[in-house]
Automatic annotation (TrEMBL):
Pfam families for this protein: Wzy_C
Protein's UniProt name: O-antigen ligase
InterPro entries registered for this protein in UniProt: O-antigen_ligase-rel_domated, WaaL-like
Any single Gene Ontology cellular-component annotation: membrane
Boundaries of every O-antigen ligase-related domain copy: 129-284
UniProt keyword Glycosyltransferase present: yes
């Protein structure tokens, strides 16, 4: 039997793909275009299964940590052995780096739990996983994953601040200092990516070159906003938006390179606005904010450490996805939509199971 919160999550996992399906249908699209939204429907089925067969807390958290170590290890291999300029260059570096970052941040929640429960062995393992996960993002050069990183760290501090002893605070400050020092080294690739970003911004706003990496993003963001303003309610659809872009190009409002980029807006929110209007944007926000609302309810100090840890992990998944979606259509890729849905479902079903066990033990 689903409770109110589970029904909320189950409902949005059906509504989001329904909105996309209607958009595809009215836009004259093909069944193949429903491939990505259909994965969210799969998520609804997985949710029902996991609510009946929830993952165990330690298995889930150590599994996530193992994923973070694997991602960071692969990133090191890509940079040091294969000689790739960016980690995960064999796939989409942005997606690989962003997923690695999320795994590392959830592992950081595991560090907090293991310190609270005095589990020293797992503290070391989760700490290593956190470092490897963040390292994977750094080595991928995915700048979008760094935008809200300080904000997310601050949110984690606020969630777990009552668990911190002076010794823990000192250790975290030292770890953060070492991370900053590493990011400032040329080997990390971060200074080079920051300088490139500064150069792209300068060239774009001076009008000297609009076809840089960030300049290209600015152009398609501007295009998406203009398309949305023309059809704000239902949007243009995936194919229809090309007509809007063609009109913009002919009027000299966007560059030819921006017009030729027939994919997405490099911003999940603007992409939804242009293609599916306010209706699509509302469905996207619900897919993000409903899980955030559900997880936030379990962050109070009165809940068991395991429950708060899982809830914090869920909050991190949502906030980091919002972060990535500001400069990349993260959910446009199969890797992004599957990772987001599965992460939310696993963490929520484990959290609900853990809370039910806690309630029974108090009876």
């Amino acid at each position: 039997m689903l409770d109110k919160n589970s029904w909320l999550l189950f409902g949005i996992l059906l509504i989001y793909p329904l909105i996309h399906g209607l958009s595809i249908l009215t836009d004259g699209g093909t069944l193949r275009e429903f491939d990505r939204p259909s994965k969210v429907i799969m998520g609804a089925a997985v949710l029902l299964f996991c609510l009946r067969n929830p993952p165990r807390f330690k298995w889930l958290m150590t599994g996530i940590a193992t994923g973070a170590i694997t991602a960071g290890g692969r990133a090191l291999y890509d940079r040091l052995v294969t000689g790739y300029g960016r980690a995960f260059e064999w796939m989409v570096p942005i997606q690989g780096g962003d997923i690695s970052m999320t795994l590392g941040l959830i592992s950081l929640c595991g560090v907090m739990w293991s310190i609270k429960t005095a589990n020293r062995g797992l503290t070391v393992y989760f700490a290593a996983a956190s470092a490897f996960g963040v390292l994977g993002s750094i080595l991928s050069g995915s700048r979008g994953g760094w935008v809200l990183f300080p904000v997310i760290l601050f949110v984690l501090y606020r969630i777990f601040r009552d668990w911190f002893s002076p010794k823990v605070k000192l250790g975290m400050s030292l770890a953060l200092t070492l991370l900053v020092i590493f990011c400032l080294t040329p080997q990390s690739g971060v200074p080079k990516r920051i300088e490139a970003a500064k150069s792209d911004i300068s060239l774009y706003f001076s009008g000297k070159n609009k076809n840089t990496s960030l300049g290209h993003r600015f152009e398609i963001w501007k295009s998406s906003v203009d398309s949305f303003l023309e059809k704000p309610l239902f949007g243009w659809g995936r194919h229809g938006v090309r007509l809007s872009q063609e009109q913009q190009y002919k009027r000299g409002l966007i560059t030819k390179e921006a017009y030729d980029f027939n994919s997405h807006a490099h911003n999940q929110f603007l992409d939804e606005m242009a293609k599916r209007g306010i209706i699509g944007l509302g469905a996207l926000l619900a897919l993000l904010l409903i899980p955030l609302y559900l997880f936030k309810q379990y962050l109070k100090p009165s809940f068991a450490p395991e429950v708060r840890t899982l809830a914090a992990g869920g909050v991190i998944v949502v906030l980091s996805t919002i972060d990535y979606s500001l400069s990349q259509a993260f959910l446009y890729h199969s890797s992004g939509i599957v990772f987001y849905c599965v992460s939310v479902i696993f963490l929520y079903s484990a959290l609900r199971s853990q809370q039910l066990m806690t309630d029974k033990s108090l009876l």
